[in-house]
TrEMBL record, chain A:
Residues 358-392 are annotated as: Disordered. One of its GO terms (molecular function) is peptidase activity. The keyword Membrane applies. It comes from Methyloradius palustris. InterPro entries: Band7/mec-2_domain, Band_7, Band_7/SPFH_dom_sf, HflK, Membrane_HflK_N. The keyword Membrane applies. It comes from the Bacteria. The gene is hflK. Its main location: membrane. PANTHER family: MODULATOR OF FTSH PROTEASE HFLK, STOMATIN-LIKE PROTEIN 2, MITOCHONDRIAL. Belongs to the band 7/mec-2 family. HflK subfamily. It is found in: Membrane. Residues 379-392 have a biased composition (Basic and acidic residues). This is Protein HflK.
UniProtKB/TrEMBL annotation, chain B:
SMART domains: PHB. Belongs to the band 7/mec-2 family. HflC subfamily. It is found in: Membrane. HflC and HflK could regulate a protease. NCBIfam families: hflC (TIGR01932). It is a single-pass membrane protein. Keywords: Membrane, Transmembrane, Transmembrane helix. This is Protein HflC. Residues 20-184 form the Band domain. Pfam families: Band_7. GO terms for cellular component: membrane.
Length: 392, 290
């Protein structure tokens, strides 16, 4: 076949000798004409060195040179010969047969590209604008949530990417949307918004990859990142309040716990006090008993030796002690018809003694011994003293 | 010079002839070769081909997967007579270029129109049988499958294969969305109230439990304390009984004196006495006789 790809290569190895090149070229042309139009007589011309030949040579060199290309790191060159894929070249300088025989497309494989769904970041700025049409979606429980995410992808197969889809890159957005909506549509709102965010992204990645593989796009989904998953703006306030309510719940519990932590140790303290006091009481009562008993027993021993005398002495001792410390009123009741006025009310003003019963006797003889009132007890009773002075 | 001119002319003529008779089919294309309007060859494999110059002409068709996107989401009624806005896309490709050319004159737009009509009516049918909930979550995958199969069946006659029909968005119309938002808001309010009263309840419970514990602790301690005291009292009683049992009569006397002493020990106690009492017998006379 005249257009056998081999012939270009032969020229490629060609020496710098122009004559040799031209000779070959001529031969080729002759062969071409000979095959295509067999009726034509082969043109005959002598190999005279004419200026036209170097020009042709120069054109040919330039033509060959157009076949050089360089593939960057992370890229692949896809070489098509007459539209048919013949090889894929890795990084480095390469040569392909020049137009119109071969062509090359250099595609960056490793570069991570991003598709934003639900929002757009303006070029060179950090501000982002919302795309509500993309970001609002229905959940399984018929709520609406607002999700923004970014898909990062690169290529895993240059050939697939180039040959199987007219606009493989444009598919990514559509596929991302359909994948996320499928998952969100099957999730409850709380799952998609809170606990399941990670999982939504992971599952979206899997679904996307599956679909893109089905289309043979050669695209590799590196990552699906949730930028934002929120309730829609219209209901944001109510959601925030619900979150606050959750905090309130914790706070109230803590307050209750704080109260408990205050009350219970105090009660333990009180209990300990009761127990200690009881213990103290017990020891006191017992020891008192022992003491009293011992004392009594000792007195008893002596009493048994001389009962009458001891009894007398104890009685008088007691009487003495009692009478020396109380206020005394001695009344002779033999002449019971005389009237005796006792300032008992004054005496009783500050006493609660029960022994006044005897004073109820109204008659006091004239020779009654006047009440011997201890001056100590009167010192504090002005009223009584003034009365005392009057009677004197 | 003349011979060189001939060479040049020869070269140019050759190039012209080649360019007229040769054609390439790209990896991404099909080619149909027409001879005076009649399809004589279908080239599905890429590479270099030849044709008759002037008589044959070649038409190319994309063999890649193409995407049909809707310009605007369409309204569909669900079985509960609610409207939903649906946006979808269709992935399709030409598999039989000859059929494709015959039925659609190779016009991609016409193909898309036909496809979208098919998918649209399919959507209408399937949505009409289902509720929003089923459309959104439950049977989404099934709907897409059914649509793909029916669209594929119909488009095969046109030389088209439908690889996938995917629902991109199924949304509620704006006015319905509003009521959804209101419902969501009410729901959140309910949750918030529930949480708050739960909090109050929990706190009250904790406090009440603390109060109970306090009472229990103190009561237990009290009972134990009383027990201890009782033991003390018992012990004391025993000691007293042992001691006083030795002479009850003297004890009564002795103890009474003690009691008198502790009863009358303040100046504010007033004793009204008769001089005839035993205590004063020596006050009257030294013999103590009456």
């Amino acid at each position: 076949m005249a257009n056998d790809p081999g012939w270009g290569n032969r020229n490629n190895e060609g020496p710098p000798d122009l004559d040799e090149v031209l000779r070959q070229f001529k031969r080729k042309i002759n062969a071409l004409f000979g095959k295509k139009d067999s009726g034509d007589k082969p043109p005959q011309f002598d190999s005279k060195n004419l200026p036209i030949l170097p020009i042709i040579a120069l054109v040919a060199i330039v033509w060959f040179a157009t076949g050089f290309y360089i593939v960057d790191q992370g890229s692949r060159g896809v070489v098509l010969r007459f539209g048919k894929h013949v090889e894929t070249t890795a990084e480095g300088p390469h040569w392909h047969m020049p137009y119109p025989i071969e062509s090359v497309t250099v595609v960056n494989m490793e570069q991570v590209r991003t598709v934003e769904v639900g929002y757009r970041t303006a070029e060179g700025r950090s501000s982002r604008s919302k795309e509500l049409r993309e970001s609002l979606m229905l959940t399984d429980d018929e709520n609406i949530i607002d999700i923004q995410f970014a898909v990062q992808y690169n290529l895993k197969s240059v050939e697939d990417n180039l040959f199987n889809n007219r606009s493989a890159e444009d598919s990514v957005r559509g596929v991302a949307e359909t994948a996320i909506r499928e998952i969100v549509g099957k999730s409850k709102m709380d799952f998609a918004l809170y606990e399941g965010r990670e999982e939504v992204a992971v599952r979206a990645k899997a679904i996307m990859q599956e679909i893109l593989d089905r289309y043979k796009t050669g695209i590799n989904v590196v990552n699906v990142t949730m930028q934002n998953a929120q309730p829609p703006e219209q209901v944001q306030a109510a959601f925030d309040d619900a979150v606050k309510a959750g905090q309130d719940l914790e706070r109230q519990k803590n307050e209750g716990q704080a109260y408990a932590n205050d009350v219970i140790p105090k009660a333990r303290g009180t209990a300990a006090r009761l127990l200690e006091e009881a213990q103290g009481y017990k020891l006191r009562v017992e020891n008192e008993a022992k003491g009293n008993a011992s004392r009594f027993e000792q007195v008893l021993t002596q009493y048994q030796r001389a009962p009458e005398v001891t009894r007398q002495r104890l009685y008088i001792d007691a009487q003495e002690q009692i009478l020396s410390s109380v206020s005394k009123v001695i009344v002779d009741q033999k002449n019971g018809n005389s009237l005796l006025y006792l300032p008992l009310d004054k005496l009783m003003n500050t006493t609660n003694s029960a022994t006044v019963g005897a004073a109820a006797a109204p008659s006091v003889p004239p020779n009654t011994v006047m009440p011997e009132i201890d001056s100590n007890s009167l010192r504090s009773r002005d009223a009584f003293r003034s009365r005392d002075r009057e009677t004197r | 010079m003349k011979s060189i001119g001939t060479v040049l002319i020869g070269i140019i003529a050759a190039i012209l002839l080649i360019s007229l008779s040769a054609f390439t089919v790209d990896q991404r294309e099909y080619a149909l070769v027409f001879r005076l309007g009649e399809i004589v060859a279908v080239k599905k494999q890429p590479g270099l081909y030849f044709k008759m110059p002037f008589v044959d002409n070649v038409k190319y068709f994309d063999n890649r997967i193409l995407t049909l996107n809707w310009v605007e989401p369409d309204r569909f009624l669900t079985s509960e007579k609610k409207n939903v806005l649906v946006d979808s896309f269709v992935k399709w490709r030409i598999v039989d270029p000859a059929k494709y050319y015959v039925s659609l004159k190779g016009d991609e737009l016409a193909a898309e129109r036909r496809l979208s009509q098919t998918v649209n009516s399919g959507l209408r049918d399937e949505f009409g049988k289902r509720t929003i909930h089923e459309v959104v979550s439950g049977e989404r995958g099934k709907i897409m499958e059914i649509l793909q199969q029916s669209a594929d069946r119909e488009s095969r006659q046109m030389g088209i294969e439908v690889l996938d029909v995917r629902l991109r968005r199924v949304d509620l119309p704006q006015e319905v969305s509003e009521s959804v938002y209101q419902r969501m808001e009410a729901e959140r309010k309910r949750v918030a109230n529930e949480l708050r009263s739960q909090g109050a309840g929990a706190a009250e419970k904790i406090r009440a439990d603390a109060d109970k514990q306090r009472e229990v602790i103190i009561a237990e301690a009290y009972s134990q304390a009383q027990d201890t005291k009782g033991a003390g009292d018992a012990k004391a009683s025993e000691i007293y009984a042992n001691a006083y049992g030795k002479n009850p009569e003297f004890y009564a006397f002795y103890r009474s004196l003690e009691a008198y002493r502790s009863s009358f020990k303040s100046k504010s106690d007033v004793l009204v006495l008769e001089p005839t009492s035993d205590f004063f017998k020596y006050m009257r006379n030294s013999s103590g006789k009456k």
